[in-house]
Structure formats: C-alpha cells, structure tokens
C-alpha cells in the first residue's frame, strides 16, 4: 500500500529530458524501479490509473518532448500511454498522441473503464493546429463498482476527533490498492467539515483507514466513507454514522 513516485523533466546534470520511476522502500526511502521508460517531457503532466483492468497502475505522460535552451524553448509536444506488464513489471508502450500538452484519464462514457482526454497543438505557434480530443478505451472487460467500507467508528479525545473504518472491497483490486473519500457534516448528508466533492481518480484520504482532526467545534457530526478503486470508480457512500463532541467547560 505504500505509494511509489514517478517524475519527469529536464535534468541539468545530464543535459536532457529524463523520467524516473521510484519504488517506495519499507523504511520510507526510494530506489529506482527495475522497469523504467525511455520517454520524458518538460512542462507536462503525468496521470496514473488502472487503464486495462488488471489491478496494476498504468500511466500517461504528456508535454514538451523536444526542447532546447534548458527546456525553455519548446519544439514539439507529445503524449504516450504505458501499461504495466504483470509478468516482468516493465511498462509497455500502447499509444502515442502527437501534439498533446496535457493528458488525463477520465471516464467519458461512464462504463467504469478509464478513457483519455488530451489537448495541445501539433505545430508550435500555429493556432489552427490546437486540439482537445477524447480517446475512448477499447478494453472490453467488465469493472463493477467497489463496495463501501463498513465498521465505521468515531471518537473524541480531548480536542481531537478520530474517524476510522474497515476496508472496502472490489472485484479487481486488493484492499491495499483501494483509496477512500470521507464526508463529514453538521447535518445528515452534510459536507460542512469535509466535502464529498472529489475529482475523478482522486481521494481526500488516500489509502489510510483513519482521518484525524484537531480542535473542531463541539456538536454532532454526520459522516460516511466511500471506496475508490484503481480505475477511479467510486462506491456508494457507507451507512452514515454520527459523532457527538461535548463542549469542554473549564473547571473552577
């Protein structure tokens, strides 16, 4: 469940564009992964998701793939999509989007399988060459929505409020690969303390099964949690629970 790291950009020491995929080690340090890719960009974007429904994280990198003058001058833009090989852990190139400045995963057709939206220009300086395109995923698999967490528990200790829950479940991803959103309000279904509005393929808690707050006002709070799977799909909200925080009165 430890998050790894991918970075891309201009390396001043090597004098070229580089991409590094780093694995999170048990002690919190990072080391180069065995499977690297030979494509890099400057001024770009990276997005990660399970693109082909195999439980592994895939990626799309977009930006300036040809630069000079320490990446200050851009000559061309490009995006490439890679899927992780389940056998050797390498990343296999599957799609090239010429001219893409940005590329993101999003479920355009609501089939619970990630698609891609990309924008950019195929000719730098030519306004007529700009584009914003959607690329539908042709994978034919089935991806059910994940199940929400259960075993919600919340308690207050002095000025701290602690919310915990059990793991959700999914038809593809193991529990360690799931993330969570939490909403907390001062009324049933409310969002006053923690909003339920979270972008696609994101979460406001991450993979943790706990969220802690300090010095929140006394009162009754209504809260629920939902699961986010590796393809960005969300579950229904869990059954709502409540937490009452008493007003602290100074002793005399």
Structure description:
This protein is an all-beta fold and 252 residues long. Helices cover 0% and strands 46% of the residues. The chain has 2 domains: 5-135; 152-245, Immunoglobulin-like. The protein has strands at 5-11, 16-24, 30-32, 42-49, 58-68, 73-84, 91-98, 100-106, 115-121, 130-135, 153-157, 160-164, 179-185, 210-214, 219-228, 241-245. It has a 4-stranded antiparallel sheet with strand order 4-5-6-7, with no helix packed on it. It has a 3-stranded antiparallel sheet with strand order 1-2-3, with no helix packed on it. A 3-stranded antiparallel sheet has the order 8-9-10, with no helix packed on it. The mean pLDDT is 94.
Task: Summarize the SSE layout with pairings.
Elements: E1 5-11, E2 16-24, E3 30-32, E4 42-49, E5 58-68, E6 73-84, E7 91-98, E8 100-106, E9 115-121, E10 130-135, E11 153-157, E12 160-164, E13 179-185, E14 210-214, E15 219-228, E16 241-245
Antiparallel strand pairs: 1-2, 2-3, 4-5, 5-6, 6-7, 8-9, 9-10, 11-12, 12-14, 13-15, 15-16
Protein name: Fibronectin type-III domain-containing protein
Outline of the structure:
This protein is mainly beta.
Question: What does the overall shape look like?
Answer: elongated
Tell me the total number of β-strands.
16
Q: Name the structural class.
A: mainly beta
Distance between the termini: 48 Å
Radius of gyration: 22 Å
* Main β sheet profile: 4 strands, antiparallel
Question: Which percent range describes the beta-strand content?
Answer: over 45%
Mean pLDDT: 94
Can you tell me the residue ranges where pLDDT is under 50 for at least 5 consecutive residues? none
Order of helices and strands: EEEEEEEEEEEEEEEE
Structurally, the number of domains stands at 2
Strands of the widest sheet, in order across it, are 4-5-6-7
Share in helix: under 10%
Number of helices: 0
């Amino acid at each position: 469940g430890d998050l790894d790291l991918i970075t891309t950009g201009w390396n001043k020491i090597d004098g070229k564009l580089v991409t590094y995929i780093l694995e999170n080690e048990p002690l919190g340090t990072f080391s180069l992964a065995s499977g690297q890719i030979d494509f890099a960009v400057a001024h770009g974007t990276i997005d990660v998701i399970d693109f082909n429904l195999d439980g592994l994280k895939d990626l799309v990198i977009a930006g300036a793939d040809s630069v000079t003058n320490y990446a200050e001058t851009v000559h061309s833009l490009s995006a490439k999509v890679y899927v992780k090989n389940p056998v050797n852990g390498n990343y296999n190139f599957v799609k090239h989007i010429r001219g893409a400045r940005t590329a993101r995963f999003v479920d355009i057709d609501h089939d619970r399988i990630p698609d891609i939206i990309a924008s950019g220009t195929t000719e730098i300086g030519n306004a007529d060459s700009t584009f914003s395109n959607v690329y539908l995923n042709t994978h034919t698999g089935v991806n059910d929505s994940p199940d929400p967490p259960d075993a919600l528990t919340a308690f207050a200790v002095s000025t701290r409020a602690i919310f915990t829950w059990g793991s959700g479940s999914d038809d593809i991803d193991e529990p360690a690969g799931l993330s969570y959103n939490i909403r907390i309000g001062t009324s049933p279904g409310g969002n006053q303390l923690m909003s339920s509005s979270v972008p696609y393929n994101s979460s406001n808690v991450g993979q943790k099964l706990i969220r802690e707050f300090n010095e929140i006002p006394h009162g009754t709070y209504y809260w629920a949690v939902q699961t986010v799977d590796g393809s960005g799909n969300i579950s229904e909200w869990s059954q709502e629970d409540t937490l009452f925080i008493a007003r602290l009165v100074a002793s005399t």
